[in-house]
Design a protein that fits this description.
Elements: E1 9-12, H1 18-32, E2 35-38, H2 44-53, H3 60-72, E3 78-80, E4 83-84, H4 95-107, E5 115-116, E6 119-120, H5 127-138, H6 143-172, E7 177-182, H7 185-188, H8 195-203, E8 206-210, H9 216-222, H10 233-245, E9 251-257, H11 261-273, E10 279-284, H12 291-307
Helix pairs in contact: 1-6, 2-3, 5-6, 9-10
The structure holds iron/sulfur cluster.
Amino acid sequence: MLERLTEMIIGIPRGLLYYRYKHLWLNFFEELGIDYIVSPETNKEIVTSGMAYAVDEACITSKIYLGHVEWLLDKCDYILVPRISDCGSAGKVCTKFQAIYDLAANTFRDRTIKLLYYNVDSSVADSEMAAFLKMGRFLGRKKSRCLYAYFKGKQAQKNAQFLELNEQQHLLKENKIKVLIIAHRYTIFDKYLGEPILKHLHKLDTVPIIGDIAPKKEAIAKSVEISETLPWAFNRELVGSIILYRDRVDGIILVSAFPCGPDSLVNEIIIRKIKDKPVLNLVIDGQEGMAGIETRLESFVDIIRFKKGEFTWKQ
Ligand code: SF4
């Protein structure tokens, strides 16, 4: 049985990198015997609070992130806000992932916020592992236990990726219209931003295929078929997934958070390069209701049905 540090609770904001690393994080803290609390699914209050704290120019996902951090204040001892500089040979990351620690620290400096962080910088050998060891040591755990917790977390992450990839392979076999969703997982899996889009696509009797669920290394390698010069690793993964899935889907929907710099450039490239599939570009700002988006999704699905000879006016 794990000895618990019952006096300490780590707060985890349900935003940005949470969607990528949640299995690693939760298993790491679990194995260290440290309690944690994850902020709730994004709701109107969290969005409103994030918008109030963030500068207007920030993307909606980072605004929402600040809303999650605010929700956790006073509910835990430390809030986990990691800093990632780059993904090594896979590429750089959006500057938000480098800056979010300082943003959170400065935004809430008057509310005695205590942040827990780890830095990932590919110029350091075994960067991620070293960063987790340092974080675990800071939390008062022995090196061997931190190492064990890290590997358990990595394995849990790998298992979860395997399962979601498997599940997606089954969806690809469904005899329905399939649309590939090119969006960061912190956008498309967010309850407030992306989930209504997925729900509506299901309602339209289509199968959403998630671009962010793809073998990452393979996707990065394939991305050069669309662009050889993209700097951002997460965008390269998404672009590569288009090559991996394009022959098995009927259309592609680009979903980005307003006003995302990397996505606006990358989406433009995708629209210019992909000519054999219908492409819909949706930019969501968290304020617009769903009515306009639903109409665009419906028209898009009608276009696909029309191309496939399935469209009837009764629909
Ligand atoms: S990639 Fe775009 S949506 Fe993601 S954090 Fe950066 S600016 Fe925001």
